[in-house]
Design a protein that fits this description.
Structural class: mainly alpha
Oligomer: single chain
Mean pLDDT: 82
Strand content: 5-15%
Number of domains: 2
Largest sheet: 2 strands, parallel
Helix content: 40-55%
Length: 157
């Protein structure tokens, strides 16, 4: 059995499934080459759901940075002298959320006692999570489609 890597695209609108999958594979291949493991063979499965909530995907051909379909972070191979760096939150609010992330989202006692804060933050910054966990009937189909796509990939392995 070959090794399988499952990519989950994350939050927000994304490029087309085909382009995103191409970038994931290129990035994985680059990483394997960087650590001297380019001979490793793997299968790749992308779990993609940007199309469920976004009728039009981000477009690599759009150059207008103000367009909501502009791709802010396109895949490009790392330079030969690339050194990973730690991402630092910029604003004071970002710093507070970053430092309290686990407490806000993982600690059940915090969520129970501060439900309004947790719900506000999820709705503001994590639209897909908000919709997925919503109990509103209008979002039931979204949740079901996402679960179906995840299960379809997991059944392959």
């Amino acid at each position: 059995m070959s090794k399988i890597i499952i990519g989950i695209h994350g939050l927000g609108n994304k490029p087309s499934r085909e382009l995103l999958e191409k970038w994931w594979k290129a990035s994985i291949d680059e990483g394997l080459q960087h650590i001297g493991k380019s001979q490793i063979k793997y299968d790749f499965e992308l779990i993609y759901w940007a199309d469920i909530l976004n009728p039009k995907s981000l477009d690599e051909n759009i150059t207008d940075k103000d367009s909501k379909f502009f791709i802010n972070e396109k895949y490009t191979p790392a330079s030969k002298d690339f050194v990973p760096y730690k991402v630092e939150p910029n604003s004071i609010i970002d710093q507070i959320i970053y430092s309290q992330f686990d407490k806000i989202f993982v600690d059940p006692s915090f969520n129970k006692n501060h439900e309004v804060i947790s719900e506000f933050l999820v709705k503001m910054y994590f639209r897909e999570m908000s919709i997925y966990y919503s109990e509103e009937e209008e979002y039931k189909d979204y949740r079901n489609i996402i679960m179906y796509r995840i299960l379809a990939v997991l059944k392959k392995i």
